[in-house]
Amino acid sequence: MSEPSPRFWSIFFEVYEALPRQGPGNRASAERALGYCSELPASPAILDLGCGVGAQTLQLAELTTGSIVAIDSHAPAIKRLRAAIAEQGLSHRVSAVVADMADPGQSPASFDLIWSEGALYNIGIGNALRICHGLLRPGGYLAFTDAVWRSKNPPAEVKTSFDLDYPEMGWVKDVVAAIDDSGFEYLGGFTLPDEAWWSDFYTPMQHRIEKLRGQYAGNDEAVAILDQIAQEPEMHRRHSDCYAYEFFVARRPPAVPLE
Fold first, then answer.
1. Residues 112, 38: Cα–Cα separation, whole Å
2. N or C end of the chain: smaller count of CB under 10 Å?
3. Run of H or E including 62
4. Per residue in 19-59, pLDDT tens?
């Protein structure tokens, strides 16, 4: 299958950059995941990998008292997050950086918590876990979401969609095995509830698509691309029993004290 056209990506970003977040998630799920991180320092150093426009970054700033470095390779998303950081008076605690997750440019063993919602798969889960292990201090935590299968025989449209975007997608047990193989201690996890897909992601996406349909009325190519993007929430409405987003929380083992 051919790669999407430059026009597709232009429309895609017109939709996604305007959304509160670029994937499933919500504040309640973030708070629940933080509950697994029971021994965080009072003011932890946090790294948010693949932050997008930073909905979860700002939630972390509310839920913790530490410092946060938020990284994404898409400069317009970082620009929007920087504006939100300034507007909320968080510049003394939160910084947003354009960088590649595969080479984030941060010092080894310098973070107490690494957070990533729906982004690590972009560089391969095994590779991402290795990078995160090196960036965490001994005893530091890793909390991330990842798409997983829930059905062995999904409908063709579901299988085709994920084969295009995430061909290596596995099951919860596969991700847990990768966590264990990467030198982490797996602490637990949970499936994101359905409202985490709709409230701040798919419902705003549908509103944005409808607004752009009016803007591009008469432009057959743009409208066709919007129709293509609109298939994602509709697929989820029909087939959400076939796949899920799972929150995984793990810990780099604490250093063994010297005798």
1. 12
2. C
3. helix 55-63
4. 999 999 999 999 999 999 999 999 999 999 999 999 999 99
